[in-house]
Amino acid sequence: MPTRKTYFIDFEAPSLSHDSWPIEIAWGNDINAIESYLISPETIRHWTDWSNPSQKIHGIPHEELIEYGDVPGLVCEKIYAALDNQLVYSDTPAFNMDWLRKLFDGASLPMPDFIIKDIDALS
Prior knowledge:
Blueprint: E1 6-12, E2 24-28, E3 35-38, H1 52-58, H2 62-68, H3 72-83, E4 87-90, H4 93-106, E5 116-118
Parallel strand pairs: 1-4, 4-5
Antiparallel strand pairs: 1-2, 2-3
């Protein structure tokens, strides 16, 4: 059985409301380069929530997502390829698991085989 690698993951979202959705995902570790993908809302009708005050924090304009973002299914494929069955950590695991679920639900795909654990578990 191959050794599982440890990764760190983070999402950005247009707000923290219940109707929010993921707009960017990034992951990496100390060996591989960080991978980062903008996520386009164009193909998901109910991904309409947007907060201009939050945009000032994350710095990603809605127009940039439309122009340069990948469709959710493609981002999910990249997650499967890189993170499926790996050890994945975050500083906010509950939020990031919610964003991960929304991304895979939006793409109508099953969740990958990992859960996001709290980075504090490493110490």
